[in-house]
Amino acid sequence: MIAPGHDHPRVVVLDFGSQVSQLIARRLREVQVFSEMRPYTAWQEVLEDPLVAGIILSGGPSSVMDPGAPDVDPRLFTAGKPLLGICYGMQLMCHKLGGRLAPAHNREYGHAEIEIEREGLLFAGLPIRQPVWMSHGDHVEALPPGFEVQARTETIPFAAAADPSRNLYAVQFHPEVAHTAHGLAMIEAFARKVCRVEDRWTAAAFVEEAVREIRDQVGDQRVLCAVSGGVDSTVMATLVDRAIGHRLHAVYVDNGVMRAGESDQVEADLNEFLHDPLQRVDAREVFLSRLAGVSDPETKRKIIGGTFIEVFKEATRDQGPFGFLAQGTLYPDRIESVSVHGPSASIKSHHNVGGLPAELGFDLVEPLRDLFKDEVRRVGRELGIPAHLLKRHPFPGPGLAVRILGEVTPERVALLQAADRIFIDELKTSGQYDAIWQAGAVFLPVHSVGVMGDERTYENAIALRAVTSLDGMTADWARIPTEILARISNRIINEVRGVNRVVYDISSKPPSTIEWE
Ligand code: XMP
């Protein structure tokens, strides 16, 4: 496996299970510091890695005093590596170094204001009073020997503390979330001033290095990859193509549940970038025939996943030999797919990783494996991929099959494609598309009464789903102006036969999901 950037100094986030641990790594990268997240159980390896310039200990849901709470050896705190403990990380640090914790009577959750008492390296140049985001039960009641208080709030005396002589820093609040107004500056100060990381992670540097590493890994062999037309696989294929040109063979499988016109579009787009033309496989029939009569969402997913592997194998059988399979796996895909003890992993069985590689028995080339989505877009821009491709909304692997509630039939696919096209076109022409994380129409197999002309109708409903989100993990329904919704509804009902009702989904995630199935 390759992971570009592997000889760069970095700041590692040790994950103690907070929902927002991943954000810490992301913030570090935002300020161009190379970072990765590891489960806290890997603390020793991380501590001994000379490339690790510093460690951030994340928050977590446990109490340090709980039996079985995530624990590490005190050596982590005395080895001399710069450390920043956040929330649980602060409590653990203080507990291990001889401080005292006060157990929670109440959880403190939400906005708070800190008052800085000592600037130190972390808060230099920041306002004395500033808003932060708190989410904790326990807090530190007495600091360990050698520590000084750096900030307080009305309710807790040690909102931030440090022992600068040992490069140990701790904050009770969460600098990684956007509600902490100056959190990014604190994280940057920790990386640059305390850990003294000087390297800058940039897209141009990434591309140069990734190209070199792909060439080293692949040697003179050929590489196979599947593309979906999505941002990740488009950037991945373009990057691998940049490294090995004609030795990349890219395959696109039309599974019959893509959006209207999408397959032609993907083929045309990819062929702009690739040295070798895309192999387009028309497998609509086999997918749709296997989906016939199936209503259960998980069964649909399994059928599509299984059929994809079969079709892909069959179609590429005589195109080889190939030494490697390239995949557009991203960092969050890996985190979500790995279950570590006490992790922040919210595990989604259905997401991209898995299936293909093990089945095909290839070694993997995963040049994007350490990147977040916004970084992939930056790399894509660097590679010259046009904005309309990089801004494309995410689209699920099982496609419209999980947006057709109940059985998938060719007629329903055609109907949904038509409605979806109107929805997306209108979002684009009205300038809404780019502000929305993801949008699509959903086919509801419920018949309701309507009236068209002089006749009563008894036809299907379409739900429109559009959400704003940073990462797809949480989402809010998009506040599309009502006049735009009105126009979309009119057009769908007038132009798509078999639809007499359009509704707009106003549920956020959680508790609802983005996809209806
Ligand atoms: P949910 O519906 O879980 O979706 O809120 C979160 C994100 O994941 C996408 N999604 C999928 N992607 N295969 C995929 O490749 C799937 O089976 C699948 N289900 C949901 C969804 O479109 C959203 O971006």
Summarize the entry for a quick read.
This protein is an alpha/beta fold and 517 residues long. The protein has helices at residues 21-30, 43-48, 75-78, 88-96, 183-194, 203-218, 231-244, 262-273, 284-291, 297-316, 331-337, 356-360, 373-382, 387-390, 410-429, 482-495; strands at 10-15, 35-39, 52-57, 83-86, 100-102, 108-116, 129-136, 139-142, 148-152, 160-163, 168-171, 223-226, 248-254, 279-282, 324-326, 363-365, 438-452, 455-468, 476-477, 499-504.
Helix content: 25-40%
Q: What is the arithmetic mean of pLDDT?
A: 91
Helical segment count: 16
CATH topology of the largest domain: Rossmann fold
Largest sheet: 9 strands, mixed
Protein structure class: alpha/beta
Number of domains: 3
CATH architecture of the largest domain: 3-Layer(aba) Sandwich
Oligomer: single chain
Sheet-strand content, in percent, reads: 15-25%
Describe the structure in your own words.
The protein has helices at about 20-30, 45-50, 75-80, 90-95, 185-195, 205-220, 230-245, 260-275, 285-290, 295-315, 330-335, 355-360, 375-380, 385-390, 410-430, 480-495, and strands at about 10-15, 35-40, 50-55, 85, 100, 110-115, 130-135, 140, 150, 160-165, 170, 225, 250-255, 280, 325, 365, 440-450, 455-470, 475, 500-505. The protein has 3 domains: about 10-195, Rossmann fold (3-Layer(aba) Sandwich), CATH 3.40.50; about 205-390, Rossmann fold; about 410-505, 2-Layer Sandwich (GMP Synthetase, Chain A, domain 3), CATH 3.30.300.10. About 35% of the residues lie in helices and about 20% in strands. α6 crosses α7 (about 230-245), α7 (about 230-245) packs across α13 and α15 packs antiparallel against α16 (about 480-495). The chain is of the alpha/beta class. The strands form 4 sheets. Strands 2-1-3-4-11-10-9-6-7 form a 9-stranded mixed β-sheet, sandwiched between helices. Strands 14-13-12-15-16 form a 5-stranded parallel β-sheet, sandwiched between helices. The protein is built from 16 helices and 20 strands. The site of xanthosine-5'-monophosphate has 15 residues, from loops.
